[in-house]
User: What shape does this take?
Amino acid sequence: MKSIGLIGCGKMGQAILKGLGDGTVIVSRRNQAELKRICEESNAKAGTNAEAAACDIVFLCVKPQQYAHVLPEIAPYVRKDALFIYLAPGFTVETMRSKLNLAQDANIVHLMPNTPCAVGAGVLAYAAPASFTGDEEATFVKLLSPLGALFRVEEKDMNAVVGVSGSSPAYFYMMIDALAMAGVRAGLSRQAAQNMAAQTMKGCAEMLLRSGKHPGMLRDEVMSPGGTTAEAVYVLEKEGFAGTLMEAVDRCVKKSAGMG
Ligand SMILES: NC(=O)c1ccc[n+]([C@@H]2O[C@H](COP(=O)([O-])OP(=O)(O)OC[C@H]3O[C@@H](n4cnc5c(N)ncnc54)[C@H](OP(=O)(O)O)[C@@H]3O)[C@@H](O)[C@H]2O)c1
Assistant: This one.
């Protein structure tokens, strides 16, 4: 059985840890009280960054701002044949390869998950060298499938992924919150409005994925001529709903690109 190390165990690290199931994982972070709590709640074993880095499969889950400090620390321990998975926006596989002193064909995977991984409904986009195929890729996909849907993308598209799926849970939560506030304004209880909005978002996503229809077509199915929905859609379009979202994602993508 392959050993797994997880360096940095905050929001994403804990989401990944949950999805990894029963196998023992060596986890490291600086806050020892938090590390102890995480290990007690899971099957994980507390270790040092060096111990986690020396495993067969390594997840680097510290913030990108920590890379300058953590990469030189772990580089001597990362094995040449390890599967090394990192999560930071803006850092290319090539940059990581050189910072870790690994060979050209090393199995380094740039993974961009999102927080719904914590409930097995995440999106996990990944970029990897062309040599990462066959059994190695199959092992990786099998390991992470319990966390959500996997998408292999080109390295050049990873910043776009950050804008569309890595950061987008925040936009969806903002929309649910806004709908809940609007519901309260119209007389519903906060809890009822929030649950209705969340369930509607879940149902729409399910319907879109199952039908394969264009979202505009599904919108038109709700929008009867001269009806209530048409009034709401008119205001959203007039106030620049799509343009605002596209502008926000553009800013997110640019921020990601500047992080490496
Ligand atoms: N959160 C998201 O929605 C999301 C989505 C997609 C991708 N990501 C990516 O996932 C990565 C982790 O993000 P996050 O949101 O999980 O951050 P986070 O909650 O702040 O977790 C970072 C973890 O790193 C640990 N850490 C910091 N310095 C360390 C060091 N020198 N040695 C060992 N551990 C150290 C921190 O614990 P201590 O302070 O105890 O050391 C903490 O457990 C980032 O690259 C981020 O870009 C996050």
Notes: The mean pLDDT is 96. The pocket of NAP is lined by residues 7-13, 28-31, 34, 49, 61-64, 66, 69-70, 87-89, 112-115, 166 (CB under 6 Å).
